[in-house]
Design a protein that fits this description.
heterotrimer, B: 258 residues, alpha+beta, Alpha-Beta Plaits, three-stranded mixed beta sheet, two-stranded antiparallel ribbon, globular, C: 1033 residues, alpha/beta, Dimethylsulfoxide Reductase, domain 2, Barwin-like endoglucanases, nine-stranded mixed beta sheet, six-stranded mixed barrel, 31 helices, 27% helix, binds ligand MGD, binds iron/sulfur cluster, binds molybdenum atom, metal-binding (chain C), Mopterin_OxRdtase_4Fe-4S_dom (chain C), 4Fe-4S (chain C), iron (chain C)
Chain lengths: 402, 258, 1033
């Protein structure tokens, strides 16, 4: 059929806009950072507390922004209540619409519980910060650790629901062979963790925390996530090459021969490998050299964020341009306005605003696993490594200067 | 790739950790992504369409009449007719292949269960419709239809698709595209009525009929006569040259993008 | 500490600012959703459709109960029958109109009309039954459909097009400047009739001054005729309204110079056909009886890609494909929609553009060599033999032609008078044939010898060489070997033989058909040759053969109710056509002067074509160059030669702008096109569905038919002071009345009793024509109330009442209720013969052609088809002047199956196909370093365009195919300014290319002209020499 030529075929627009990418990105950061906050917050691993603080900050901000992006992908945003009025247990999206608010509430409550002792401690602060602390802390009763653990566990459970539904929602779509694979949900999760670890690597110096412990932990998480992602991608590829999983074979067939897709795949593969290599390199450095090297890990963090975002862009946007019914690819030029670049930038803008507002008004650096204002001093965590002890870790209880 | 290497890699694939995910996927598909019950419409009927490609002359009367009848926005289509230059597999002769497409009103429509608000549903007469009052415009169904049969109507901001012109069928009239089919290729009718033209033609042509993308298990109810198997799935063809050039050769883009 | 606190608050401030910035970007980025939410407060972020399930789908025009079949009309709409102007097929259509807004909602086919319906309904069918028959009731509507094609559907947008002219316009600034001012109709008529210094460019003769039948244009050349001939009137073609235009032109104003698009539509084919049908006056042509034919060779016409009648042919070959009843081959430089991969028994064979005479002569050679012709039929020497054999007519295959060089009757048939058996020119002066070795008159024997070549003693004792027509044909066919034919046309020898063999094997049910593909440099002989195959098959007038069709019910002649052909004071035009057609150069003063001066009279200054009808291809350019004579005014009516004729724009645009070469140019049109852009005045015209008229079919229908149209919606344009819409009709009526011309005004139309009736408005003419149509032969019955209601005739009835006699109204309403008058769909055959037969002698040899002279070379033309390479005007092969080295490819065009020449403004067609990439063969692409989708430059001796290459196998190597209908510069493609206000500027209307921009001036001519086919003067649009280069943009 090499000489078949399509003389006339309609053009199709994409149906999901970059908002979808933003949602999938934000929500993945959200659930992955939640899990990064969990060891310390929920499971009481003190060593992870510095990470947990950054992770919780990131988690809350992304959790708040994600639904906003999701709403925008609806052409009838004000009809969001239809999701609840006419819920359809047959639809993964509907299932998701039920999980998502619970999850968001879970994250908010968890953050509140974690930050409440600090807020209580801040009630006397002058100005608006004090006002907010008074208002947000809802009295001065202690925050039972058990409650925090309970909420944490529930939210973690809900987050698996999010992972499942966001993955399944896309993976069940037979219409797009590149989506229709069991490997997609784990890949979303794995790349989500890569990006989340990256985000914390970036936040670590930006917030002034500069914790080597955090860097070390994140590098390890990233290494693991990279490994899983590589395994998943490899399995998908083998499925396809072997042609015994029809949809994967069809998926590979659908983009075979496209120079753009080849370069996209190459780029993804190479960045992944480079990331993996760099992480491995850093982790294998002798301990004394790490602080100096770790000061640069934010660069890796950016690369990781790029990987996480690009993966979603390619999966959600680029895949929609693969014609499923006619030959070739549909043209999608990202528009400059709201449904395109401005929308993408806008979501990040919102995220930035959210994180800065939290930073401004919430003493997130003092996040704890429960307790009350009175428990705030003395400083609890024993530094993982004396040499790596940073100013940030000493600053607990001191007003934010970030 | 040689078969030995293939099977080797296959073994590898099966051994890989994710094989455990397979049962999970069946839950994702079967458990949750199941067809909700049909509602509305006449339960005594099942509408379907037969397109006799031998009689399609590629005139696009269907495309335009449907567009007018159903007030589709410019550049969005409920039905289309693609045109290909094809080489005959045996004789090597070159000929034109016309492929009219529209919603297949699938027996197992993947667009329906995905709808988070059950705005899109299948009527008891088999017609798959969208309740535009309820639709939230999430476009999930648009992505879920393997046939590009749906679009978001830029004017109503809700999902839009072929309704088999249910408003005309209900008035005892024919859909616009059937009524206007110059070649006489499109036949619609009630497949539960053994006397209907479509039932008789289905009986007559039986195995010669084909549907699009049968491997997706959507069970389309638009049947094609004179189909070349190579077009049942996504055609492997040199894609259409879609650029629009101005008199100086500058690309000017497509006028009706949204 | 203090410092750090300042620092801190600065930091806080910065963070706040960044946060605010982030929030602001967000708000900007979230604008769309926010807007939607704003709108969504009312329940929907979009437009809320009428129905939750059916959206904004149209309300059905009526409903039919599935059990009882009872039909209920929708009181808000009406359905009416009229005609479609979407292409020259002019199908009868049914139009749904919204009663409240007078908007057309959708269009489909008229079930009574054979051009739209599968099997059209008998006239006696009540309209309500016809409407029911279109419904789903009992699946009736899809067992017998009546359709409108894509264009026919989309055309309704023409009515309210932003590019439509609705007001009388007068140019501002020089011609062609696209700037206009509105004037009143009355002012326009006054200025056009009276002339004066209309544009501040000096005095212009008005029509009154030009209307001079007493003064010769040029006393030196009296044959040119009176000055009145200096008005030229042109139109596209008869869209059903020409009768009134011609009444004005020929018989009221009485100018010789009228032209229509025929010469750039399909004239070469039509004349080739006219040559075999012995009808070079009207150039009769035929179409295959598709339903009964077994083998059809489509050569240079593409049924279902285009062709006339577009829908009917498309549908019939589609049905034949499904039924497997027909085998057909499409011989075309490009693959198109007529060849379907979904069915067997149809096939495309690629041919080199402009080389069809080689294929024709190759096939003829094989057929003659292998007795592959209808021997018994061809042997019939005269009508008595034909009748005895049960044939409608006979051929001149056996007739003898005088072939002695220099003989005064060379090229003429040997007639009884040559042998002293009859008086020359008398009834009895019949052609001679040879039967059983004897010379006899064709009427006296039942069979004669086909191949004769002998000396004959004439009455005067001189011996003369005679050859039978068949012998001449065989000689012509044998002039080249099959291998050479194959090489010239690019079709392998084996394929030519196979085609000939298959053609012969189907006997009299094998047919060939041609049209636009014959518009090449040697088109006349190519078409003549192709049509000769039909003669050899003996398929004329036969079931499954070449059909004449039933013709039209003529309403504008001397009808049973009114005489619309004659009127008191009627005049006939005199003198020579501007195109020097139908007039032997040898009788001209120019010729005489040259001979008297002892000069060689050849070549003439420019071609004179004694066989060709008046041709617009020569009219305009000749007039602007003043040869044979200059003109003073042009009235153009919905015609667009500048877009349609290859090379014309470059040739005449500058001259057309010169008021000295042409004083006055009035265009009557619905739109501003590439031609009337140069007009001085625009008269806004009605657009289809708003017009009156009667159309027929361009063959392809076996029965007799007339499609009627009436203004089913109100014309949207300006009105005259009398309250009539300004239109072509009101323009001619007002002009004629102002000039005091006969045939218009109060006493203009005689009825059967000789009483005179007025012609003051369009319907005065057309309703009377309707009465003639309705009441000729067996008169139609009167329409009943149900018919009137179901056919939406309410707006028409008062007009019938005010114009027609009471006894005429019922039958006329009956006619309009069915959208015309159509012979019933019944057996159109008498045994194996078609009822509508062509009775003239079919020509193997055409005496008129064989005795005509090419005025450029002085050589006689061949009277039988023959092969030649496309020549330029002086007889040199085009390839001699424009060599293959320099111009390696040949460009040709084919009609878009979607667009026509003026559909570009229709968004619903543009959205399907916005552009026309050009077709190029893979081999050529490789040769010139071009890949699929590349931008290329195409250059010809006359122009250069930029295109997108579509590289594949679907085109002949060496040829480049260009879809016609794109590449506009007007009709919306460039905004015009009217009263200072600009039309919308939609750059997409300019997209694509027009092959006619690659046409060129024939460098071998002395008086400017584009490249024209020598015999017919048809515009050459197939086989233009070009070269291509990839370009980077
Ligand atoms: N869709 C559509 N239909 C139409 C019209 C329209 O504009 N659009 N216009 C109507 C009109 S006005 C007319 S006259 C008819 C004309 O109908 P056709 O005659 O069928 O159409 P054309 O496109 O003029 O030419 C027919 C074919 O000749 C081929 N051809 C070109 N050069 C050569 C050659 O040298 N040799 C051979 N053998 N073939 C060649 C072209 O590729 C084309 O496919 O169509 C009518 N129908
Ligand atoms: N290269 C190339 N050239 C071709 C052809 C081709 O296939 N290839 N085809 C040739 C053929 S077959 C033909 S017939 C000619 C056609 O050539 P023409 O008959 O000269 O041109 P049209 O474009 O049909 O011109 C009709 C004009 O009428 C006007 N008009 C349209 N609709 C209406 C209406 O409803 N009312 C009024 N009052 N005016 C209206 C528009 O201004 C339009 O331009 O072109 C020929 N030229
Ligand atoms: S064709 Fe698409 S839209 Fe139509 S029923 Fe099937 S899946 Fe749904
Ligand atoms: S776009 Fe509308 S119909 Fe489609 S899935 Fe979403 S809500 Fe349902
Ligand atoms: S049935 Fe109606 S809606 Fe569907 S494609 Fe045909 S015309 Fe369009
Ligand atoms: S209207 Fe009929 S013949 Fe024309 S393109 Fe559509 S399906 Fe084919
Ligand atoms: S063929 Fe189509 S465009 Fe031409 S007259 Fe008929 S309906 Fe109109
Ligand atoms: Mo034409």
């Amino acid at each position: 059929m090499n000489s078949t030529i399509e003389l006339l075929a309609p053009r199709y627009d994409i149906a999901w806009y970059p908002w979808a990418v933003q949602y999938f990105f934000m929500i993945a950061l959200s659930y992955a950072t939640l899990w990064l906050a969990a060891p310390a917050l929920v499971f009481g691993k003190q060593k992870w507390l510095p990470t947990a603080r950054l992770a919780l900050l990131a988690c809350l901000a992304t959790t708040l922004v994600a639904p906003v992006a999701l709403l925008a992908d609806l052409h009838q945003p004000l009809r969001f209540w239809h999701f609840y009025a006419y819920a359809n247990s047959h639809s993964w999206m509907s299932v998701g619409s039920l999980i998502l608010p619970l999850y968001v509430v879970g994250v908010i409550v968890l953050a509140w519980l974690a930050w409440r002792p600090a807020l209580q401690a801040n009630r006397q602060a002058p100005g608006i910060a004090g006002f907010i602390a008074r208002w947000l802390s809802l009295g001065d009763s202690p925050t039972p650790r058990a409650l925090l653990v309970l909420v944490g566990l529930c939210t973690l459970a809900l987050s698996t629901g999010i992972m499942l539904y966001t993955g399944a929602e896309v993976a069940i779509v037979k219409a797009r062979p590149l989506w229709n694979t069991v490997w997609l949900p784990p890949m979303f999760v794995a790349t989500g963790f890569i990006a989340a670890a990256g985000l914390i690597l970036v936040l670590n110096p930006v917030t002034g925390e500069r914790s080597t412990v955090v860097s070390g932990q994140m590098l390890k998480v990233m290494l693991g996530a990279c490994l899983v992602a590589g395994l998943v991608a490899g399995s998908w590829f083998l499925d396809g090459i072997n042609a015994d999983v029809g949809s994967v074979a069809a998926a590979m067939q659908s983009v075979r021969g496209s120079a753009e897709w080849r370069s996209t795949a190459l780029w993804g593969g190479l960045t992944g490998l480079a990331l993996f290599g760099a992480v491995l390199y850093l982790l294998s450095r002798p301990a004394p050299r790490r602080p100096a090297l770790y000061a640069w890990t934010w660069v890796l963090g950016l690369v990781a964020l790029h990987v996480g975002w690009m993966f979603r862009w390619v999966v959600l946007m680029d895949v929609q341009t693969v014609a499923r019914h006619s030959a070739g690819f549909h043209h999608y030029g990202i528009p400059a306005g709201s449904s395109g670049i401005l929308g993408i930038v806008g979501t990040f803008g919102l995220w930035l605003a959210a994180i800065l507002l939290i930073d401004l008004f919430v003493p997130w650096r003092q996040a704890r696993q429960g307790g009350s204002a009175a428990d705030l001093s003395p400083v609890t965590p024993a530094p993982a490594h004396p040499a790596a002890q940073s100013a940030a870790e000493n600053s607990e209880g001191t007003p934010s200067h970030g | 790739m040689d078969p030995i290497r293939r099977s080797l890699l296959g073994q590898l694939a099966r051994l890989s950790a994710g094989a455990a995910l397979v049962p999970l996927s069946s839950v994702a598909n079967a458990g949750i992504n199941q067809q909700p019950p049909r509602r509305e419409g006449d339960p005594t009927k099942r509408y379907g369409m037969l397109i006799d490609l031998r009689q399609c002359i590629g005139c696009q009367a269907c495309t335009v009449s449907c567009h007018i009848e159903n007030a589709a926005p410019l550049g969005s289509f409920r039905t289309t007719v693609a045109q290909y230059e094809v080489e005959h597999q045996e004789t090597g002769e070159v000929a034109t292949f016309m492929l009219p497409r529209l919603c297949n009103h699938c027996e197992n429509p993947p667009c329906v269960p995905v709808c988070p608000v059950e705005a899109t549903f299948q009527r008891q007469d088999g017609i798959v419709v969208v309740d535009s009052d309820r639709c939230v415009g999430c476009a999930y169904c648009v992505n879920a239809c393997p046939y590009d049969a749906r679009f978001i109507n830029e004017r109503t901001q809700t999902a839009d698709k072929c309704t088999f012109c249910a408003h005309r069928l209900e008035a005892g009239l024919l859909p616009a595209c059937v009524e206007s089919c110059v070649g006489g290729a499109r036949i619609i009718g009630d497949m539960r009525d053994p006397e209907s033209q479509i039932s008789r033609m289905i009986a007559e042509h039986g195995d010669a009929l084909m549907v699009l993308q049968p491997e997706k298990n959507t069970m389309p109810q638009v049947f094609y006569l004179g189909m070349d198997e190579r077009f049942v799935t996504r055609p492997q063809a040199e894609p259409v040259a879609l650029d629009v050039l101005d008199p100086h050769g500058k690309e000017m883009g497509y006028e009706f993008h949204h | 500490m203090a410092k750090s606190s300042v620092d801190k608050s600065r930091r806080r401030f910065m963070k706040g600012a960044v946060a605010a910035g982030g929030a602001a970007t967000f708000v900007a980025g979230y604008a769309d959703p926010l807007l939607k939410m704003g709108k969504g407060v009312t329940g929907s972020a979009g437009e809320k459709p009428k129905d939750r399930i059916h959206g904004n789908s149209l309300a059905p025009e009526y409903s039919v109960d599935p059990q009882s079949g009872e039909l209920t009309l929708n009181p808000d709409q009406r359905v009416a029958f009229t005609v479609c102007y979407g292409c020259t097929t002019k199908c009868g259509v049914r139009v749904r109109v919204d009663n409240a807004t007078d908007q057309v909602l959708r269009v489909s086919g008229n079930p009574y009309n054979p051009l739209s319906a599968d099997e059209h309904l008998p006239m006696r069918t009540p309209v309500v039954d016809a409407l029911r028959g279109l419904s789903a009731y009992g699946d009736q509507g899809q067992q017998n459909r009546s359709t409108a094609c894509a264009r026919g559907n989309a055309m309704m947008a023409q009515i309210d097009s932003p590019f439509r002219v609705t007001h009388c316009l007068k140019r501002v600034g020089g011609r062609g400047g696209r700037e206009w001012q509105k004037v009143s109709f009355e002012q326009l008529i006054e200025e056009v009739c009276e002339g004066g210094d209309l544009f501040g460019e000096g005095d212009v003769d008005g029509l009154r001054a030009i209307h001079d039948h007493d003064t010769l244009i040029d006393p030196e050349n009296p044959e040119y005729g009176p000055k009145a001939n200096q008005l030229m009137v042109m139109e596209a073609t008869d869209y059903g309204r020409s009768a009134l235009l011609k009444r004005f032109t020929f018989n009221a104003f009485a100018t010789r110079n009228y032209g229509h698009h025929g010469s750039y539509c399909g004239l070469a084919y039509r004349m080739g056909s006219g040559a075999v049908m012995d009808d070079l006056a009207k150039n009769a042509h035929t179409k295959p009886d598709i339903q009964n034919a077994r083998f059809i060779l489509y050569v240079g016409t593409a049924p279902s890609q285009a062709g006339n009648p577009f829908k009917r042919q498309g549908r019939l070959i589609a049905q034949a494909r499904a039924a497997g009843s027909l085998d057909y081959v499409v011989i075309d430089p490009a693959l198109n929609a007529s060849v379907s991969h979904a069915a067997d028994h149809n096939r495309w064979v690629a041919i080199r553009p402009g080389s069809d005479s080689a294929l024709a002569m190759g096939m003829i050679q094989w057929l003659l060599d292998n007795a592959g012709y209808a021997k018994d039929f061809l042997e019939l020497p005269g009508q008595p033999a034909a009748e005895a054999a049960g044939e409608a007519t006979h051929t001149n295959a056996t007739h003898l032609v005088i072939d002695t060089e220099g003989h005064p009757r060379r090229g003429r048939f040997l007639r009884a008078s040559d042998l002293g058996q009859a008086e020359a020119g008398s009834e009895a002066d019949l052609p001679m044939v040879v039967a059983d070795g004897d010379l006899v008159q064709g009427t006296q024997v039942m069979a004669a010898e086909l191949f004769v070549d002998r000396e004959v003693a004439q009455a005067d004792g001189n011996s003369v060489r005679v050859k039978s027509s068949m012998t001449l044909l065989r000689e012509a066919a044998n002039e080249h070997g099959l291998a050479e034919y194959a090489e010239h046309c690019g079709i392998p020898e084996a394929t030519i033989i196979d085609l000939a063999r298959r053609f012969a094997s189907h006997g009299r049910r094998a047919v060939t058909n041609s049209h636009g593909g014959m518009m090449s440099g040697n088109g006349f002989y190519a078409a003549f040759g192709m049509q000769m195959l039909n003669v050899l098959a003996g398929n004329h007038n036969r079931k499954g053969g070449s059909a004449m069709g039933g013709g039209q019910f003529n309403g504008v002649g001397e009808g049973p109710r009114y005489d619309l052909a004659n009127f008191p004071g009627k005049r006939g035009p005199q003198g020579l056509f501007l195109s020097r057609s139908r007039f032997p150069y040898e009788k001209s003063s120019e010729y005489q002067r040259k001979v008297a001066a002892g000069e060689d009279p050849y070549p003439a200054r420019a071609p004179w074509r004694s066989l060709a009808p008046p041709i617009l291809t020569e009219h305009l350019s000749s007039a602007l160059d003043g040869y044979p004579y200059p003109i003073k005014a042009v009235i153009g009516c919905m015609a667009n030669p500048i877009y349609g004729q290859a090379g014309l724009e470059a040739l005449i645009a500058e001259k057309l702008k010169d008021p000295k070469r042409l004083g006055l140019f009035v265009a009557i049109d619905g739109f501003l096109n590439e031609t009337n852009r140069y007009a001085d005045y625009i008269v806004p015209d009605s657009v289809m569905y708003e017009v009156w008229g009667f159309t027929g079919a361009w063959k392809g229908n076996l029965g007799k038919m007339t499609t009627a149209c009436w203004p089913v919606v109100e014309p949207r344009q300006q009105q005259t002071a009398e309250g009539e819409p300004v239109s072509m009709e009101s323009f001619f009526i007002a002009t004629a009345k102002r000039l005091g011309l006969p045939g218009f005004g109060d006493e203009a139309i005689p009825d059967a009793e000789g009483k005179l009736h007025p012609l003051n408005r369009a319907e005065d003419f057309f309703l009377r024509a309707a009465a003639n149509v309705a009441m000729q032969g067996e008169p139609l019955p009167a329409a009943d109330a149900s018919d009137i209601q179901h056919a939406g005739l309410a707006p028409l009835m008062p007009r019938l009442a005010r114009t027609l006699k009471p006894e005429e109204r019922g039958p006329v309403a009956y006619l309009y209720a069915r959208g015309g008058r159509f012979e019933d769909f019944k057996d159109h055959f008498k045994g194996q013969n078609l009822t509508s037969a062509w009775k003239r002698t079919l020509c193997v040899y055409n005496e008129q052609v064989g005795t005509s002279i090419n005025t450029q070379s002085g050589q006689p033309n061949r009277g039988v088809p023959c092969h030649g390479l496309p020549p330029l005007a002086d007889g040199r092969a085009m390839r001699e002047v424009f060599t293959e080295e320099e111009w390696p490819l040949l460009a040709f065009s084919f009609k878009s199956n979607l667009m026509n020449s003026y559909a570009i403004g229709l968004e619903r067609l543009r959205m399907i196909k916005p552009y026309n990439p050009v077709m190029m063969h893979r081999q050529d692409a490789e040769r010139f370093g071009i890949s699929h989708g590349d931008t290329i430059r195409i250059e010809s001796p006359g122009g250069s365009v930029v295109a997108l290459a579509l590289v594949g196998e679907g085109v002949m190597p060496g040829a480049l195919g260009i879809e016609h209908g794109y590449g506009h510069r007007d009709l919306g493609a460039t905004p015009h300014v009217i009263d200072g206000e600009s039309q919308p500027d939609l750059e997409w209307l300019r997209a694509g290319i027009n092959i006619n921009d690659l046409g060129f001036k024939d460098p071998t001519r002395n008086v400017d002209g584009t490249w024209l086919e020598p015999i017919s003067g048809a515009a050459v649009r197939q086989g233009l020499p070009i070269r291509v280069t990839p370009i980077d943009v």
